[in-house]
Amino acid sequence: MSKVNLSIVAVSILLVVGTWAQNPKKALKPPKPNKAQCCDEVRSLKVQVANLTSLLGELSRKQEADLMTVVRQIMDLDKQNRQQEARVTEAESKYSEINNRVEIMQLQTLQSAPQTTTSDAIYDCATLYSKNYKISGEYKLPKDEFLGTPELSVFCDMETNGGGWTLIQRRKVGLTIFSRDWKQYKSGFGSIRGDFWLGNDHIFRLTRQPSVLRIEMEDWEGETRYAEYGLFSVANELNSYKLLLANYRGNAGDSLRYHNNTNFSTFNKDNDKCVDNCAALRKGGYWYNCCTDSNLNGVFYRYGEHMKGTDGITWYGWHGPNYSLKKVEMKVRPVGFQP
Ligand SMILES: [Ca+2]
Asked: Where do the Fibrinogen C-terminal domain residues begin and end (predicted)?
């Protein structure tokens, strides 16, 4: 009996020791982290991330704003630069125009010298161009006894299609009335830098040499067209400044052909081919037939007013009989002109 008891005690001791041996291991394990503590850390990290994100957003917004400011500054500078450039160009062109006039005066002096030969004569813008005057503007053609030409202010187009063009008419400002009498159309009227008719006597003189006529037009939408006649001449006053032309080319239509072989008419000299007085009806001076397929010396109507009458600055081949053009230039140069 006591033997059995002893062995029970021994087993019990062994079990106790065994249990004790396992326990220290458990006690050495690190304590499980507190659930509340963990959430705090995550929360604080989340807050930090949020702060950083908003900081980043702010920074990028600021950067964008800075960039916009810089772009705006660059654009401003660019604009200023272009304005400066425009001013310089304007000054340069003014300078060269003045220079031109000085040279013209020098040429005039040379012209009046007794040794001058007629081959040096300045007859039109084409001869000026061949003497190296290549800037468009107002020129004074000197008087020439041999050619029988008076001193004359002209406007030269030295750029269009090779240059050398002498303008005989311009419409662009609209303040000059073109319903004028025979005498005014004979000698010319208006301002050479604005709207004018050079004068039938001058046009006759210019077109005694075989000439090309070029007509440039602009409508109120800003589109441009042209009509060119490879042969153009105007007779003298005895022959009523009769128009002769041929060889149309261009993109505006051949609306001067209808006026070919007709005499010039003004309201006080009805030379047209009609029972009516076309010059009075169309309010201009022109080579009226019966009456018009074009009316380049008609009434200047402004935008909005330009589609009212049949007496406007018309070119039927482009805009028909009821559309008054915004701008017109008529110019001549000798056939065979070489730029
Ligand atoms: Ca008539």
From this structure: 116-336
